[in-house]
Specification:
Blueprint (H helix, E strand, L loop, with lengths): L9 E2 L3 E4 L6 H10 L7 H17 L4 E7 L2 E10 L5 E7 L8 H16 L5 E6 L3 H9 L3 E2 L3 E7 L2 E10 L17 E2 L3 E4 L6 H8 L2 H6 L9 H16 L4 E7 L5 E11 L5 E8 L8 H14 L11 E7 L3 H9 L3 E11 L4 E10 H5 L1
Parallel strand pairs: 5-6, 14-15
Antiparallel strand pairs: 1-2, 2-3, 3-4, 4-5, 6-9, 7-9, 8-9, 10-11, 11-12, 12-13, 13-14, 15-17, 16-17
Helix pairs in contact: 1-2, 5-7
Length: 366
């Protein structure tokens, strides 16, 4: 199907995609000031709004629309055709318009135009690793997340890794899996929150010790700052993929990170089971901190979704039979021992038994 010679007007009643107008100039200038790293100045904005967008459309190089929201310039969204009947998608939103689903609405309108009017077979997306707002929009509009490609793009004179994704005409324009947002959970002593980048030293010292080396063979020793940075990125990826929650267990008064509590192995659609894993900084051990954190997560996990919980059915804790500290935490938090697999948990010196504990919602209400 042919690409229209001129911009059509696309709207869902809230967001409108249209051709540029002279009164969009200030909005474009303001948007460029929000992203100075791209190196565009006011003259670039005048050329782009004045004739650049229209010229790019006429050459079929870039089909760019102005995003209008509440009667104002709110950003832009574009399809960039390739020689194979496909297109790459771009979108950019002004700060004042963010957080209201405007970008997702614009992308849905653009995808409908691209597939129905232009006849594109596939629309591709990529963004620099770490550009979570862009990835959030791709997730919300139904893109299939693909490979992370090393050094795919250039930014500020250096090569950067990029996330990739794609979507086709029959694909639903809605998320394919949950994106887990971590609730902040509190007790009189503790606050469960996400880790911060400035806590790298705390993480490295907590995970570099003899006990970790003995019981958790998959954790490198020593656990370096680079290992910690990779781990934090991976935890964010896992949450975005709807696979796990990961909390920093912090002191409620000082906000110092004391340890880590992870909820993983989640089966939400059917049986709603999950598994917990945890570790503590050496200076936080022996005070019942982790049992208290586990109890708080269990309360949230079993609470109904309409009450702000997860609506789970069962929690598991699995550890080495000889890991008395981990077992004591499970038992103190009310978990019940359900069995032992012989020679099923690898340690640094031998195969240990693997013990399994579980907790049901009924155990909390009983």
């Amino acid at each position: 199907m042919p690409i229209p010679a001129e911009h059509p007007v696309l709207t869902d009643g809230v967001v409108t995609l249209r051709a540029p107008r002279p009164d969009d100039l200030q909005g474009q200038i303001d948007r460029q000031r929000e992203d100075p790293g791209r190196g565009f100045d006011e003259d670039d904005a005048r050329r782009w709004i004045g004739y650049g967008i229209v010229e790019a459309w006429a050459k079929r190089e870039r089909l760019l629309f102005i995003v209008e929201y509440k009667g104002r310039y709110a950003g832009s969204a574009a399809l960039e055709p390739d020689g194979n009947g496909n297109a790459r998608i771009h979108y950019s939103l002004s700060e004042w318009a963010r957080g209201a689903g405007v970008a997702s609405r614009a992308v849905r309108l653009l995808l409908e135009f691209g597939f129905t009017t232009c006849g594109f077979h596939v629309v591709h997306w990529w963004a620099r690793v770490g550009n979570w707002p862009s990835r959030r929009v791709a997730w919300a509009t139904g893109f299939h997340l693909g490979e992370t490609i090393p050094a795919l793009a250039e930014e500020s004179g250096r090569r950067v890794d990029a996330w990739t994704a794609w979507i086709g005409p029959p694909d639903p324009r809605r998320p394919r899996q949950p994106w887990y947002e971590h609730p902040i959970l509190e007790t009189p002593r503790l606050r469960l929150r996400t880790w911060r980048a400035d806590e790298i030293p705390r993480i490295t010292t907590a995970r570099t010790n003899q006990a970790t080396a003995h019981f958790l063979l998959f954790i490198p020793q020593p656990f370096t700052a680079e290992d910690a940075r990779f781990w934090l990125r991976d935890m964010a990826e896992q949450a975005a993929a709807g696979r796990r929650f990961n909390w920093c267990v912090a002191d409620a008064e000082t906000d110092q990170g004391l340890g880590n509590l992870t909820l993983f192995g989640i089966h939400r659609d059917q049986v709603r089971d999950g598994e917990l894993g945890y570790w503590l900084h050496p200076d936080a051990q022996g005070r019942g901190v982790m049992a208290e954190a586990v109890e708080r997560v269990a309360q949230w996990y079993f609470a109904a979704e309409d009450a702000g919980g997860f609506g789970g059915r069962r929690l598991f804790i699995r550890t080495a039979a000889s890991n008395t500290a981990a077992r004591h935490t499970a038992e103190k938090a009310g978990f019940q021992l359900t069995g032992t697999e012989r020679e099923a948990f690898p340690l640094s010196t031998h195969l240990d038994g693997k013990v399994t504990y579980d907790l049901l919602a009924a155990d909390l209400s009983g």
